[in-house]
Amino acid sequence: MTPSTIYGLKRVIVVVVPLDVEMIERLKQIVGAENVLVGESLDEKYARDEALAVKPCMPEVVVKPQTTEEIAEILRLANEKRIPVTPRGGGTGLSGGCVTSSGGILLSLERMNRILEIDEENHVAVVEAGVTLSELFKAVEAHGLCYPIYPGEASATVGGNVATNAGGMMAIKYGVTRHFVLGLEAVLPTGEVIKTGGKYGKVSSGYDLTQLIVGSEGTLAVITKVILKLVPKQKAKITLFAAFRNLKNCVKTVPLLLKSGVTPLIVEFMDKLGLFGMENYTGIRVPINEPVREEAEAFLLIVLEGENQEQVYKNAEVVGDICMESGAMEVFVPSTERAQRELLELREKSFYAARDSGATFLVDVVVPRSEIPKFMEYVKEVSAKYSTVITGTGHAGDGNIHLAILEPDRNKLSSILKEIYLFGKALGGAISAEHGIGMEKRELFLELEDHVKIELMRRIKKAFDPNNILNPGKIF
Ligand SMILES: Cc1cc2nc3c(=O)[nH]c(=O)nc-3n(C[C@H](O)[C@H](O)[C@H](O)COP(=O)(O)OP(=O)(O)OC[C@H]3O[C@@H](n4cnc5c(N)ncnc54)[C@H](O)[C@@H]3O)c2cc1C
Question: 156 CB under 6 A from ligand 1?
Fold first, then answer.
């Protein structure tokens, strides 16, 4: 590594000591030689995540610890030698958060993958940070319980979810990751280990360090263990699909649904271009009547869950009526469970469909849900002004819009993003709802966010990480 500046706190210049043979040897002593990858043994997957606009960057070394003590030792060493450390979970992030920005150590949590406890009495799971969502879902289901946060990609880890405060489709009913994190074990960049929270939901004992670390994108501490809240598993589900002539009618359905007393599990919207892209990518064709397919501009995918089939069918009738009253052209429930699952699969593949069709950026803006039509109208104007293609899908229930922008010209893309972010903020929204700032949104975040808040965040960062070794170049 060339000695260089790492992205500094208030542009403080930090001289980084290159990783020499002695340092690699010390890392091997800590975690075992087979868990230190350098040179030819480095795998290309460690150079990237899933962000569309972040260039891959190979770390100098990948280190795969298995215990909190090993992580503490690695961080103490890195802090002493001023070596950047980038935590990595499943690498499914959408903002370049786990891509190294200034060489150093990529700290992969993949071997910290034990489910330590499923506590049926307290409805709690205690897991290591490298446990994947698919492993967690399986384990809690066996106890008749459920971890109801599903941010789209089951190979993501719990640690990554906590670090990004991941959201996903079920946020309308259950909230986001932070609402299910009761406590943490984490290693500070200085090597000290802290335990926060516990198997309880109520606490008023000083600053809430658990919630400060949630969403900190690996810049404040390395999360090693997580205490998660669980809920009883619901036994029945039903999926509805509704087609609307315009987005306004489509979106105004959501508050009516919520007011009706039926709390949907999922309410996703998609525009026509978005839907067609997903159909092309997956080969799944939504069985809408042909004339409706021609005319409809916006669609809602709604999933309901309940104790039994009778209850969900009853609620589906209520939802169907509300959709029709607010102007739906057609509402249907696929006749088989498989066809219902396929609809969800179609929506889950929206990111890959967008990437496949040439998207160069995925926007993750959030606005108050009532402002979605105004926001999408503005996006149409921006798209026309810059002669570019922008498709929209999103979590309609919580105002989180994912726009896929198909614009290869980086200058033009930057202007488009700035206009969209400014408009979203003016509507009372924020730049990122669930993917985080990472590297991808850093520049515009620093430009557009309130500078008093940014300065406060920098001071918090400095209190945790005085030498700016942990995930430098992210957020700031
Ligand atoms: C197809 C697809 C669909 C997606 N849908 C959604 C969605 O609906 N909602 C949503 O919120 N996200 C979504 N995502 C994004 C992604 O899955 C989440 O950001 C996820 O939380 C990342 O987890 P990860 O383990 O892959 O983390 P990584 O990508 O490895 O890392 C993400 C960030 O967390 C930090 N980090 C990771 N582990 C730790 C740790 N143990 N301690 C400290 N910091 C750590 C990293 O440094 C980085 O900053 C989607 C991604 C894909 C590919």
Answer: yes
**Residue 336, number of CB atoms within 10 A of its CB:** 8
Q: Given the CA of residue 130, which atom of ligand 1 is nearest to it?
A: 41
The stretches of 260-409 forming alpha helices (DSSP H) are 272-282, 290-295, 309-325, 337-348, 350-356, 372-385
pTM tops 0.70, yes or no: yes
Give yes or no for residue 13 having a pLDDT over 80.
Answer: no
Domains of the chain from N-terminus onward: 9-111+458-464 (3.30.43.10), 115-232 (3.30.465.10), 236-351 (3.30.70.2190), 358-440 (3.30.70.2740)
How far away, in angstroms, is 326 Cα from ligand 1 center? 36
Query: 171, 397 in Cβ contact below 8 A?
Result: yes
Q: Give nearest CA residue, ligand 1 atom 11.
A: 166
Strand partners, 270: 299, 393
At residue 284, what is the residue type? Answer: I
Q: From the CB of 50, is ligand 1 less than 6 Å away?
A: yes
Any atom of ligand 1 within 6 Å of the Cβ of 217: yes
Q: Write the pLDDT tens digit of every residue in 383-437.
A: 999 999 999 999 988 999 999 999 999 999 999 999 999 999 999 999 999 999 9
CA 334 to chain centre: 29
